Amino acid sequence: MSEAATGAAGTKLLRIGELSRRVGVPVESLRAWERRYGLLTPSRTQGGFRLYGEDDVARVLAMRANLEGGLFAAEAARLALAEDVAEPIRAPAPTADAAQLAAALDRFDEAGAQQALDRLLATLTIDVVLRDVLLPYLHELGERWERAEVSVAQEHFASNLLRGRLTALARGWDRGGGPRALLACAEGERHDLPLVGFGLALRGHGWRISYLGADTPVASLVEAARELSPDAVVVSGTVAGVFDPIATQLREVALHAPLHLAGAAASGRVARRAHGTLLAGDVVAAAEVLAAGRR
User: How many CB atoms lie within 10 A of CB 90?
Assistant: First the structure.
């Protein structure tokens, strides 16, 4: 059976895989949004297959835009479902403060950088600050360093200042009664800022975070997974090839908890080798996918 069908009025209906490709949202998220928020209203074939129409497409696109605008999932869904909302609500553009933050970091101005961060965090959600400001800045910083446009000292100053601020926001992120995620960087991976950002985004969905940090030996990760029995283990890697030497070793982690690989170095192939799953996308999108799978 093809993934597309035709409704009574000639309207094209979609199976969930086709809907996922059309709107750019993982199937797991679509199912979670349907189950938790009633965002989708599929019809069913005689064989029991769900089919989705243009109204479902429109609501998913609105939901996605609202999430990208910095809203939490429940509010994003409520607005997408509201009949009187013509346009998704977006958070204010952070352009000016983002530029001031970048300039302050470049000139080793700690006070100026902290003030810019204060303004950003006072007006935007942490998800928006991560996705639209900090991660793009860090990506650009890395590219500038490769082109010798910034010094090692500038790169270290900026990374350490941002790490300090994010880890301060992470204080107490292991408290509460929600599901627990165990986070670690792969052995040999020292870039932990994206993983800290992922933990903060996941905390926004009510998860508790146990954080092991950079360059975590597989044996230590196994020990922690055995001790904590987390609901998910997320291993991050940004350096190409960092997972290759440890992929089969990570299978022992997967014996104790669902294993997810994330970061630029992760792929579906290496995730399958590790008996885990791939968490694709930026840290905010990846956190949403993981959280949606638990709802």
Answer: 13
Beta-strand relationship, 43-44 and 50-51 = antiparallel
- Report which DSSP code applies to 189: -
Query: CB 127: neighbour CB atoms within 10 A?
Result: 26
Measured CA angle at 272 (ends 36, 234), to 5 deg = 55
Q: What is the 3-state secondary structure (H, E, C) of 85-101?
A: CCCCCCCCCCHHHHHHH
| pLDDT level of residue 95 (50, 70, 90 thresholds) | low
Tell me the sheet residues that pair with 182.
210, 233
Task: Compute the Cα dihedral for 59, 64, 66, 71 and give only its sign.
Answer: positive
Task: Kindly report, residue by residue over 242-288, the tens digit of the pLDDT.
Answer: 999 999 999 999 999 999 999 989 999 999 999 999 998 889 889 98
Pairing between β-strand 50-51 and β-strand 4-6 as defined by DSSP bridges: unpaired
Tokens of 53: 């129409």
Sign of the Cα torsion 127, 129, 134, 139 reads: positive
| Correct CATH for 4-81 of 2.30.130.10, 1.10.1660.10, 1.20.1260.10, 1.10.10.200 | 1.10.1660.10
Write out the DSSP string of 14-70: E-HHHHHHHHT--HHHHHHHHHHH-----EE-TT--EEB-HHHHHHHHHHHHHHHTT
How does pLDDT run across 37-91, given as a tens digit for each residue?
888 888 877 777 789 888 888 888 888 887 777 676 777 788 888 843 444 444 4
pTM (2 d.p.): 0.69
Give dist(CA 156, CA 219) in Å, integer: 29
CATH number for the region 95-169 comes to: 1.10.1240.10
Question: Whole-angstrom Cα distance, residue 248 to residue 140?
Answer: 33
Q: Fill in the DSSP letter of residue 149.
A: S
